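QA checklist item 7 of 12: single-chain prediction sanity check.
[x] sequence parsed
[x] length recorded as 380
[x] structure emitted
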Amino acid sequence: MMVSRETTAQERGKPSFAGIDFSQTPFIAFWEMTKACALACRHCRAVAQPKRNPMELTTEEGIRLLGEIADMGTPLMVLTGGDALMRPDLLEFIKYGNDRGMRVSLAPSATRLVTPEIMGKAKDAGLARASISVDGSTAEIHDAFRRTPGSFDRTISAIKAVGEAGVSLQINTSVSRYNISDLNNMVDFVVKCKAVMWDVFFIVPTGRGQREDMITPQQHEEVFNWLYDLTKQVGFDVKTTAAEHYRRVTLQRRKAEAVENQAKRPETVTPGFQHGDSIGRASKGVNDGNGCCFISHIGEVYPSGFLPLVAGNVRRQSLTEIYRKSPLFLELRDTTRIKGKCGRCEYKNICGGSRARAYGVTGDYMAEEPNCIYQPGSQA
């Protein structure tokens, strides 16, 4: 099922994603505006807390940060937390980012702060997308994962608020051993919500996330193949996070289909992206520190929100310098440094394995992806 539409007013005049040099410019930047949040989710990367930290970046520092990101050429900016709605200056940041030509996305917690009124104001300020996390199609599954009774009902209210405001909706789901059997039901849920994208996260053991929360390597492979088939059947985009080896599965499947159809074998892969929306697509694989960076509420710079290694702080040096020149980011972008079977794999330049999961499981961010079953050279 293919869906097309005209570009929105917010899209027109935005920079293109084509030809982005990940060594100079991240495709996507995340700013953890605050760690404050009313929830205590099982997998929480941030280990969020009830109250705001007085050492958070100030409004002035936040504007300066967004300005530098815009100068780097980053078109996709995600404002997250904690709960970004606990920042009273949120709308100011959305407007500034939009005015500077970035596509601004918001990832609020599903609390009573998400109302049609605030989402409408965010849209007027230039918000391109709101993402709401749903980790189960029922209250029983979702609330157990979120560790907050009533969370599912508040999530439904938040989704309705986004819809009433006319903001493009994305549903985020973290795949774990607690909800893997519910994924088929989640597809129906995403359809009912009229979401334009389903972002499927795969657990990384960091923050509150634990190794025992992850699905097995074989289950990763099974879910990847299921997702690939799903992309051909649904009217929304499918994106994966912390699942770099999904790109390998996608390319394998496309090569097999090309051989069967006697067509030219594909050399590039952009899995699951076929429907129009107001955000855009990376032209190549994003990985921790390679096309991605994460700025904490106190200015620390990480390769991603899942790899808890600090490369610098924007209060002491520029984000541009950190991203382009820090030893950590440079090493993460050097695929010749990857170890184990990932280092020998013919797919390492489009996959590379999750550097965050490698670190979370082994303590070595250049180790092989622990949740990949593929053996290099086993399939031409």
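[x] summary fact logged: The longest helix spans residues 245-260.
[ ] second reviewer sign-off
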